[in-house]
Design brief:
Blueprint lengths: L2 E2 L2 E2 L14 E7 H5 L5 H11 L3 H11 L2 H14 L4 E3 L21 H13 L2 E2 L4 E2 L10 H6 L4 E2 L8 E7 L4 H12 L4 E9 L5 E2 L4 H11 L3 H9 L8 H16 L6 H16 L1
Parallel strand pairs: 3-9, 4-5, 4-8, 8-9
Antiparallel strand pairs: 1-2, 3-10, 6-7
Helix pairs in contact: 2-3, 3-5, 8-10
């Protein structure tokens, strides 16, 4: 991992947000997706997640998918005025919620989810874009996820917009990286959807102006150039979940007596340097 003048410096370029739906359409909670411990639903989830059991995956998708989220997705497709293409991060290097998953093609849920949405909407499933780099994000802390980002490859279609899909989202960093790859190569992204997150509610995708302003106020004028220099993209390219994480940490540090502005920014730099060196 590259360092400059004793500080970590990675290059994870992201494209500015423009035109996408502001929320990731979520179908249910992670607990609903997994099912209760010891239940038949949990057994089906484990088979779908860890053994690439497509029959089990279809069962999990059908009991998790919500009519409200599907209606929102269909409305977005209609508003877009043309058919879209569903695309997911795969191979499944990056299961966000399951540290026990093994390396390789084990998670059938995104594939079953894509087929479910294809049958519902008539939109195609993209087979060209694939995830190129394994970063092991399942086992990484949220701090480490800023430093280790996935990369993608494959041909980009410019005649149809993409809909990003996954089984689970937390910080949405993987979907943000996938979106940037598409946009950087001439494609467009219509919206994003996932089967589950922690709370089962639609999740803001781009960082909001409120969160961006809160970060600028807390970390001071040096925050924007620091972020650009360290991570290779502007603060405005973060997801809302990533921004909220930094805002929550800011509050914790303030409660520990670290001042706002330059002292807090220096504490943030030290934190990332320590994470990178660990």
């Amino acid at each position: 991992m590259p360092w400059k003048d004793g500080h970590i410096q990675v290059n994870h370029p992201r494209e500015p947000w423009v035109g996408e739906a502001s929320s990731i359409f979520i179908h249910g909670t992670l607990n609903t997706l997994k099912g209760k411990s010891g239940s038949p639903d949990r057994e089906l989830y484990v088979a779908a997640k860890r053994a690439f059991d497509m029959d089990a995956a279809f069962n999990v998708v059908e009991r998790t998918a919500s009519r409200e989220a599907c209606d929102s997705l269909i409305a977005r497709i209609i508003a877009g005025g043309c058919k879209a293409r569903f695309v997911m991060p795969h191979p499944d290097f990056d299961d966000e919620d399951d540290p026990g998953a093994s390396v390789g093609l084990t998670n059938a849920l995104p594939f079953a989810f894509a087929k479910y949405l294809k049958d519902l909407t008539g939109c195609a499933i993209d087979e060209e874009i694939i995830q190129m780099a394994r970063v092991g994000r399942t086992k990484l802390s949220k701090w480490q996820r800023f430093l280790y980002q996935p990369s993608f490859g494959g041909a980009i279609r410019t005649d149809e917009p993409y809909i990003l899909i996954d089984d689970v989202v937390s910080t949405a960093g993987t979907l943000a990286a996938l979106r940037s790859y598409i946009v950087r190569n001439g494609g467009t992204v219509l919206c994003a959807t996932a089967l589950a997150n922690g709370v089962g509610k639609n999740q803001p995708f781009p960082i909001t102006q409120e969160t961006s302003s809160n970060l600028a106020e807390a970390y001071g004028d040096g925050f924007a150039p620091y972020w650009r220099e360290t991570f290779g993209h502007d603060v405005g390219c973060l997801t809302e979940a990533e921004g909220r994480f930094l805002r929550t940490w800011r509050d914790e540090e303030k409660n520990e007596g670290v001042g706002v502005g330059k002292p807090l920014l220096q504490r943030l730099r030290t934190q990332f340097d320590a994470v990178a060196a660990a």
